[in-house]
Structures
1.
Amino acid sequence: MKIIGITGGVGAGKTEVLEYLNSKYGASICQTDKVAKRLQKKGGVCYDAIVEHFGREILDEKDELNRKKLSDIVFSNPDELEALNQIVHPAVKEEVDKKVRQEERKNTNLFIIESAILIETRYEEMCDELWYIYVEDSARRNRLFYSRGYDTKKIDEIIAAQLPKEKFLEHCDRVIDNSGVFEETMLQLDEIIKDL
């Protein structure tokens, strides 16, 4: 089984890449964001520690985490982001590791781990290759503004909290340029898969 780590800044179009690899090549996909959200739900392994650290004011009326309140706190304060990461990432990595073992038992050919912070959380230890989905900053900003409705301040904070392009390039084995039309991205992906 080939294990590929896919990363890139927010708004790079990683989801579209994953959908393509899943539909065309039958890749099994694990998005660390989705795993993290599940672990942060009430009753999940991260919930109590997050509430203990950030206080009950980050909860909604159902006692679930209010993701907007939490993200407003962590994206405007690097220390708080680090505190949240220390709670969540070890638990997520443990879940991903379990998933890798399940997929190996199912004889999966291609397993993809997607995370915006793949490098910071050292997923290269479990991946055969890391792929960087690159998009020009202006295109990322437009996507975040139009598709997610983020304002300029929030976009600036999110981008500032992520690694610069140079760091991604330094750590990744392959770069997929997703700045143009998606058909161009598909051709790049097809070439890479042939090469695996």
2.
Amino acid sequence: MGNNFIIQNPFAILTFIAAPAILTNAASVLAMSTINRMLRTRERMHQMFKESTDSVVANNPQFIAQVSRAERQGLLLLSALHWIYVAIGSFAAASLVTLIGAGVGQLGNTFMMRIIVGAGLLLGISGISGLIGGCVNLFKATQLSLVNIREEAELIRARQTTNRKTDEI
């Protein structure tokens, strides 16, 4: 890098911190949408809790299966948030390490630069791993949600068929 690095291009430091900063922003948006999904899952569970006061509904095996899936979905969303928060912290730390590295690079200390580059790479890998882990859990939670949607749609169709037959009689 040498001592002329910042003098030649004062915006070079911004280039190095742009990628982690953009990834931090993307992970933050993902965290917010995951929190919204978690709140919707909590509302759905609260609705099912109210429905469980009806003994016919509460003893229905399909209803119990839906409750179990909603609970599992909540746990997956919590796990996704954990992974996403790791990603946010890692990307933010990578941005800081990059800034420190830019300053240390001006000193010409190659040993310190190797340590800082290694730390930046580890933090970047940790951040990407967090995003991947969070997305895997979000995908699994979405699959559970889809199972519940399909089951509820099937129940609605069955009720409509029963209602039509009753109306025809």
